[in-house]
Write a structure and sequence with these properties.
Layout: E1 10-18, E2 25-33, H1 40-49, E3 77-80, E4 83-86, E5 99-102, E6 109-111, E7 114-115, H2 118-126, H3 147-156, H4 164-168, H5 181-192, H6 200-208, H7 221-225, H8 232-251
Parallel strand pairs: 1-5
Antiparallel strand pairs: 1-2, 3-4, 3-5, 6-7
The protein binds iron/sulfur cluster and FE2/S2 (inorganic) cluster.
Iron/sulfur cluster is lined by residues 74, 159-165, 182, 185, 225-226, 228, 230, 232.
Length: 259
């Protein structure tokens, strides 16, 4: 057992391990030296330096994803004590011990706590979650948005594709086609942009089909789980209205509408 040199305190962790995608899982217990201000990532780094379980058994270093370390990139999401969240902003002092770490279950496990979030990125591609511009020359300033619209659009733009809302949603799974709350909210964001609106009807067509809006079960788990406080259910309600209008436009054979 490892003991802390300075404080004498330790941090106890239980980690769900998995060596390969689809491979067998096992729980392993670790105990690392405590330092004030530690987060879950610094505890994982301590395990990486000395991958030995509490029983003194040598094991492989635990694998996880991370990048920004300041809750901006979304890469370090995992289930911590039963709640999906970012491990970089999960402070040891605020967590009950033993701290249980598991990979998010909505995404395929690559190894240990590292998951493959491709499903979310593919959904963003499917709904054209970008503003198409010609980047080959200086376009100057972009079009201005009304301030009220800009304010809510800015909130939606805070999405860091962390996958937490997808994990919290009971309708998102490997077996289901639902694209999930984050990609839906991005449809609202890019349809609100004056240039992005050029592809508005294409985005709406995507979410009116299989795996789109109709697959939302309105559990409202997503909005409660989002670490960025993104109003996901407001986005979904707004998209329900937009797709209803689009349905009438399609029915009456309207021209390509961009407003
Ligand atoms: S909407 Fe929120 S919870 Fe979902 S991926 Fe974006 S930041 Fe994460
Ligand atoms: S490392 Fe980027 S959100 Fe945690």
């Amino acid at each position: 057992m490892t003991t802390a040199v300075q404080t004498g305190r330790t941090v106890k962790l239980e980690i769900l391990r998995q060596d390969t995608e689809g491979g067998a899982t096992r729980w392993e217990k670790f105990e690392v030296p405590y330092r004030p201000g530690m987060n879950v990532i610094s505890a994982l780094m301590a395990i990486q330096q000395n991958p030995v379980t509490v029983d003194g058994k040598e094991t492989s270093p635990v694998t996880w994803d991370m990048n920004c370390l300041e809750e901006v990139c979304g890469a370090c999401s995992m289930v911590i004590n039963g709640r999906p969240r970012q491990s970089c902003s999960a402070l040891i002092d605020q967590l009950e011990q033993p701290i249980k770490l598991e990979p998010m279950s909505t995404f395929p496990v690559v190894r240990d706590l590292q998951v493959d979030r491709s499903r979310m990125f593919n959904a963003l591609k499917k709904v054209k979650a970008w503003v198409p511009i010609d980047g080959s020359y200086d376009l100057g300033e972009g079009p201005r948005m009304p301030e009220r619209k800009r304010q809510w659009a800015y909130e939606l733009s805070k999405c860091m594709t962390c996958g937490v809302c997808m994990e919290a949603c009971p309708n998102v799974s490997e077996k289901a086609s639902f694209i999930g709350p984050a990609p839906l909210s991005q449809v609202r964001l890019f349809n609100a942009h004056p240039t992005g609106a050029m592809n508005k009807d294409e985005r709406l067509a995507e979410i009116m089909g299989d795996g789109g809006l109709a697959n939302c079960g309105n559990s409202q788990n997503c909005v409660a789980a989002c670490p960025k406080g993104i109003p996901l259910t407001t986005s979904i309600a707004a998209l329900n209205r937009a797709t209803t209008v689009q349905m009438f436009r399609n029915f009456f054979g309207s021209d390509h509408m961009v407003d």
